[in-house]
Structure formats: C-alpha cells, structure tokens
Amino acid sequence: MIKQIVSFSGGKDSTAMLLRLIELNKKPDEVVFADTKLEFLEIYERVEKMKVLCEKEGITFFWLKTKQNFDDWFYGIPLRGESGKRGLIRGFPLTLFPCWWSRESKFKVLDSFCKNKIRILGIAKDEPKRIRKKEGYKYPLVEWGWSEKKCVDYLKKKGWFMEIDNRFRRTGCYLCPKQNKDSLRVLYQNYPKLWDKLKKYEKDSPQGFKPNFKLNEIEKKWANQTKLK
C-alpha cells in the first residue's frame, strides 16, 4: 500500500490541515519537515509541538536537514555563470529566477524523500497558482474549501495560533529576497537581530538584496516615519 505523507512547513496552512486531518481520523502515515535552517523561531517552536503531537498519535515524524548551510552557498563561488561574475561569491539568488537555497534545502530533499508516496500539501483554496496538477498530490484544504483566513480561525479555535500568522501571509526563510516591502517592514520592526543579519548579507552580496532599493534606505525611511507619529 502506498504511504501518505504530509509535507509540513510549520506555517498556518499546513498546521491547520494536519490538525484537521488528525481530528477527522484521517491521519497520514508520515509527516516530513524540510528544515531550511532559516526559519523563524516561532516556526521551530510549532514544529517541535507538532512533532510531539504526531508521536502521540502514532504518526512517524521526519525532521530533515541538508548537510550544508545557507552560508556555504551564499559565500561559495559558482562553477558556471556569466564571465563578468567569475570569481565572485554567489550571493543572493536573483528575484527573477528560482531560489537555489529552496531547491537545495527543500525541493531536492522532499522530492527524494517523498518518492513513491502520496504527498499531502497544505495549500489554501485562495492560492491556486501554487497547486501542482500532478498525480500523487493531494490538497485537502482546497477540497474542503478552506481559505487562509479559515485556517487562521481554526488555529485560534484549537489553540495553535501564533502572532506570526498575522504578521506574514506566508512564512519561510526570513532573508528571502522575494519578500515584499510589507514583509520586510515586519522583519525590521519585530526581528531586529534577523534584520541586522540580512543587512550584513546585502553588504556582502555582489548583486545586493533587491535591484530597486537598499535596506539601509528603507530603514531610514521607516525610522523617520516612526518619529513623525
């Protein structure tokens, strides 16, 4: 019999989905969390809590980690690329292309681990662009008609809600260059240590963080706006 495995990110949608599956007595055979090593502290706390629940429910929980760290890739020198960039460190992934760290720390890890298993993903009904129309994938939230708001309401009801669920629409690597300014402002206001680390990476990256602005510039703007209030 083909095993069913939940790909658990620790975010609000996958958490709500897994809790509901357990509540409905439709427990998966396995749950897997692919650790990018760049998650928010709250996410790690929730993953730990879910791991304990799964063990209590008799569900095998796998916490996967890559052998390398983000810094190994960020400060590594690419073997291929434009001749003008040869000899430079890789730096941040370009926003126009898929992220090399997501590829290495999540997608490759999950695709290998979940091979020949039915994959259950926590994607809400209002995120149709993220759905992969492939055999062997299941989307319970879509089947139930659950939106992101419904997931948040359910987490509050079950006692699994965290303030980070309101702060970000989607949680992931705190230093992702594909974040919009709203997410970056949340990072600046609520996670000063992570914000400082992000600025250090921007300084070291050959192509910077974003092509249209610098973190120091928007930091000054936000600081001035706060003073004027």
How would you characterize the overall build of this protein?
This protein is of the alpha/beta class and 229 residues long. The chain has one domain: 3-Layer(aba) Sandwich (Rossmann fold). 46% of the residues lie in helices and 10% in strands. It is built from ten helices and five strands, in the order βαβαβααββαααααα. It has helices spanning 12-23, 41-57, 70-74, 100-113, 140-144, 148-158, 164-167, 181-190, 192-204, 215-228; strands at residues 4-7, 30-35, 60-65, 118-121, 137-138. The protein has a five-stranded parallel β-sheet with strand order 3-2-1-4-5, sandwiched between helices.
Could you provide a short overview of the structure?
The chain is α/β, with parallel strands linked by helices and 229 residues long. It has one domain (4-171): HUPs (Rossmann fold), CATH 3.40.50.620. It contains 10 helices and 5 strands.
Provide key terms for this protein.
229 residues; alpha/beta; Rossmann fold; globular
